[in-house]
Write a structure and sequence with these properties.
Blueprint: H1 6-11, H2 41-66, H3 80-88, E1 95-97, H4 103-108, H5 113-121, H6 130-133, H7 144-158, E2 165-170, H8 177-189, E3 193-199, E4 202-203, E5 206-207, E6 227-232, H9 236-251, E7 257-262, H10 281-288, H11 292-302, H12 308-330, H13 350-363
Length: about 375
């Protein structure tokens, strides 16, 4: 029986020297990278439709903040290839652990957009049933969801299920202790979890160069015994191919997998941020030229997989989707202030009962 040497073990964990790519910025074929297979044509056309819808959803959500219908919204414009590929790589019974910037991924998974935006609207809960959707609440504290994702992956395996968990995280999240604890935890347990790092180059205003000295974030998995890869995050074909391979690796018992996608956040961190304070227009323009949606559309047109009618149909469906969302979000939500007391303890304490009665006396004079 052959035994792998420590050197061979490390070689098996290392990412590619350069990000995996199938399609160049101009939409032309860049070849098929060794060890990967291109997604099916039908899957690519469906991915395009979801990207068109996702971008229109993102634009509409951004507009809703300006209308006062959302308290805050973190745009993911420019990261659609990552958002859509992450969802398409999973089965319906797999779990997704998103960040606050992954609303497009949740919509692409078929979730009600109003429920997705409930948290950002100011609701006290995430807006949807995580167990039914197999989507954890969108996480605002950086990287805390990664260690929760490992726990879920370990639980699925202990229950005899063959589900995989995918944890989305940003480049800023990789600087948090929870991220490293999650990698270590996953590596030791060989948990069926995929860590998907969307490296959009800025943690709010902090550029990547001030976050890490590593040659790429993908190398952070090696020290924990986690197989890793880096990919062009604006190339839908490449992201979907790499993530599909990572999910298959985890599902087959190969252990955790770390994927770093090199992408870019086209808009500001949130509507409360002014990105012009810390990045140059020339930099944004360079990344605009690598737009993942335009790249995929050009590529599919060139291969005869997408007609003018297909493009028009996708855009029309997206406009209708945005209009329905706009109409539903224009209606004021019905808030019950007494819900404040309903989910604190299984059995309300005397103090809670007293506070509830005080609120009732102020809101409903003459009632206890």
């Amino acid at each position: 029986m052959s035994v792998r040497t420590p050197h061979q073990e490390v070689e098996g964990l290392l990412p590619s020297a350069v990000p995996v790519r199938f399609v160049a910025e101009d939409g032309s074929d860049a070849g098929t990278p060794a060890g990967y297979r291109a997604p099916e044509d039908g899957t690519l056309v469906e991915a395009y439709r979801r990207m068109v819808l996702g971008r229109r959803f993102d634009r509409q959500a951004t507009a809703l903040t300006k209308q006062g219908r959302l308290a805050v919204y973190p745009s993911s414009r420019g990261q659609e290839a990552c958002q859509i590929a992450g969802v398409l790589a999973l089965r319906e019974d797999d779990w997704l652990f998103p960040t606050y910037r992954d609303s497009v991924a949740l919509v692409a998974r078929g979730m009600d957009p109003v429920e997705v935006l409930t948290l950002l609207r100011g609701g006290w809960h995430c807006g949807y049933d995580p167990a039914a959707a197999r989507v954890a609440p969108q996480c605002t504290p950086l990287a805390t969801q990664t260690i929760h994702a490992v726990g879920m992956a370990d639980a699925l395996r202990r229950k005899g299920e063959d589900g995989v968990v995918m944890a989305f995280v940003g480049d800023g999240g990789t600087s948090e202790g929870d991220f490293h604890e999650a990698l270590n935890y996953a590596g030791v347990l060989r948990a069926p979890v995929v860590f998907f790092v969307q490296n959009n180059k800025y943690a709010i205003s902090v550029p990547l160069a001030k976050q890490t000295a590593a040659p790429a974030l993908a190398y952070k998995g090696v020290g924990y015994g986690v197989r890793s890869e880096q990919v062009d995050g604006n190339d839908l074909l490449a992201v979907l191919s790499v993530l599909t391979a990572a999910v298959e690796h985890a599902r087959s018992g190969g252990g955790p997998f770390l994927v770093e996608a090199h992408t870019y956040r086209m808009d500001s961190h949130t509507n409360a941020d002014d990105a012009s304070r810390y990045r140059e227009d020339e930099e944004v323009a360079r990344w605009e030229a690598a737009d993942p949606l335009a790249r995929l559309e050009t590529h599919l047109r060139g291969r005869g997989l997408l007609s003018e009618e297909d493009v028009a149909s996708a855009r029309e469906a997206a406009e209708e989707y945005a209009a329905r969302l706009r109409d539903r979000m224009a209606a004021d939500p019905e808030a019950d202030p007494f819900e404040l007391f309903d989910h604190v303890f299984a059995e309300p304490t005397p103090q809670l009962r007293e506070q509830r009665a005080l609120l009732a006396s102020e809101m409903l004079p003459g009632e206890d």
